Amino acid sequence: MKPYIKLAETLTPEGEALELFQHDENYFISSNGQKLMTSLAHGSEEELARMACQPFRSAKQPKVLIGGLGMCFTLAAAVESLTQKGATFVVAELTEAILEWNQTHMKSMHPGLLDDPRVEVRVKPVQKIMGDANEEYSAIMLDVDNGPSAFHGEDNDSLYTLEGIDLAKNALKNGGVLAVWSAYYDPKYTKLLRKAELDVSVVEVPAAHKGRKNRLHTIWIAKKGEYVSQNARGGRNRR
User: Which one is the CATH code of 41-223: 3.10.450.350, 1.10.3470.10, 3.40.50.150, 3.30.70.80?
Assistant: First the structure.
């Protein structure tokens, strides 16, 4: 049996310890002995991106924001979904070492992805990026922590409050989509999204492409108003 090899370790800005391990050809990141993410299970993260980007496949210049770089599976699926040259992908990652690990130890999983000129990774809280935006993004994807039941700090918790939802809503263009990943369903979060006057649907998807198909994750798709395609006759909203 091949051993688990610790490749790197770091502290988050809030002081949480993170460790990167490799086992055979697979990677996982853990905190205090608990696995936060693994390259073995990423189906739901990819589905998050596909559902968020789907309305904008024909848009000329869609701009999307992803909260959380992780192991790049959400970003990779978004780039695959929106192949147009005018697309822009902004990623907010709180921990600089996560970016560095994807550029070094885990680079082989997504060759060339972070070198794509349409991709920009900003080492800052996604709340800050949303707060600085005004009707700027076609889609915002939040793949942060464990979802609304966040267990890594107050900054993550704030994303799932009504104030956090309003930040995202204000950063979205009319017709934009807020897509949120979670390991578990949370009815309170659904109510908050509706209180923010977003059109909400909730989908359960398999956590992984292989293995335990009965393990499900939750994705919220919350729409801000109606999307008008740039190809629609007389349409004014350009995406």
Answer: 3.40.50.150
Separation between Cα atoms, residue 194 and residue 11, nearest integer Å? 36
Torsion angle, alpha carbons of 126, 131, 135, 139, to 10: 10
- Cα 90 to its chain centre, rounded Å, is 10
Q: Would the pTM of this model clear 0.85, i.e. be above it?
A: yes
Q: From first to last of the 239 residues of the chain, give the pLDDT tens digit.
A: 678 899 999 999 889 899 999 998 899 999 888 888 889 878 899 999 999 999 999 999 999 999 999 999 999 999 999 999 999 999 999 999 999 999 999 999 999 999 999 999 999 999 999 999 999 999 999 998 778 875 455 566 789 999 999 999 999 999 999 999 998 899 999 999 999 999 999 999 988 765 555 689 999 999 998 766 655 444 444 34
